[in-house]
Amino acid sequence: MSFSKSWLALAPALAVGACGSTPKHAEMISATGPNVLGLPSVDRSKCDDHGKTVVTADTNLDQKPDVWKFFQTVDVGGQKTDVLTCKEVDLNHDGRVDLVYYYDDKGAQTTLEEADLDFDGKFDISRFYVNGKVVREELDTNFDQKPDVWKYYEDGKLVRIERDTNGDGKPDEWQYYEGGKLDRIGYDSTGSGKVDRWDRAPEGEDSEGAAAAPAAGAAAPSATTPPAATTPPAPGKTAAPAAAKTSPAAAPSSK
Q1: Which of 61, 105, 201, 253 lies 20 to 30 angstroms, CA to CA, from 190?
Q2: In angstroms, rounded to a whole number, what is the distance separating the alpha carbons of residues 135 and 133?
Q3: Rounded CA separation 111/69 (Å)
């Protein structure tokens, strides 16, 4: 589900801003290493106001913008067209960006969402999309600006959660899901990076209950295949609005 559906009920009155800088935000630092593979490529320049038209909205009517939409003019079949590249939102109206959407080259589908859940000026969750479907989430549950929970999806369905429970940047717990239910959990108790103990999920455990626990992780080549040489026993059961060209909007204070 898109953040906009769960957080926003915006009916913005579009406003045209004067020249000035656009809001900035602190990106969450993605983890590196063998547990982080295949991240979808995201062009972060899409949220740069250089060469773009910026249209703002004031959703709480306090005479200050709290939504910024970035449009880039492109040539489509010989016709100039404004394409939505990015949207930034100040959810709590404190002058800082709390939610950012990156869009594909057609401005039709989200490729990345980032959110600041505790309004401290730093992003705590990133959600990546491919062809309009979420494929991965990264969460910072201890608010140190580094992800410690990784969630993987196939065809929009959760298939794996990986956790870094000791804060060393490496996964030490892997949760695997079958048919939407938690099936098995692997643990690395030695720091080797490999599973040395497996637990079967209790009967009746569903994905919602399991996913509520802190989680973190590592990216295996296949979202449903356990880390190499650690295979567990076989399971018992297994659209953007048109925008008139304007100058970039006056920005709130930077993150």
Answers
A1: 201
A2: 6
A3: 15
Confidence band (pLDDT; 50, 70, 90) for 201?
confident
208 within 8 A of 161, measured Cβ to Cβ: no
Average pLDDT value for residue range 11-31: 44
Question: Environment class of residue 123 by beta-carbon count within 10 Å: exposed (0-12), middle (13-18) or buried (19+)?
Answer: buried
* CA distance from start to end of the chain: 26
What is the residue extent of each domain of the chain? 15-28+46-119+239-255, 148-238
Q: Are 54 and 22 in contact (CB under 8 A)?
A: yes
What is the reported pTM?
0.68
- The reported pLDDT for the residue numbered 76 is 83
Distance of CA 192 to the CA centre of its chain: 29
Q: For the stretch 91-107, what's the b/e string if a residue is b when 16 or more beta carbons lie within 10 angstroms of its beta carbon?
A: beeeebbbbbbbbbeeb
Query: What are the backbone angles phi and psi of residue 146, rounded to the nearest 5°?
Result: -130, 135
Positive or negative, the Cα torsion across 32, 163, 89, 3? positive
pLDDT for 248: 41
Instruction: Using alpha carbons, select from 188, 176, 132, 149 the residue that is nearest to residue 28.
Output: 149
pLDDT digits 0-9 by tens, 104-116: 999 999 999 999 9
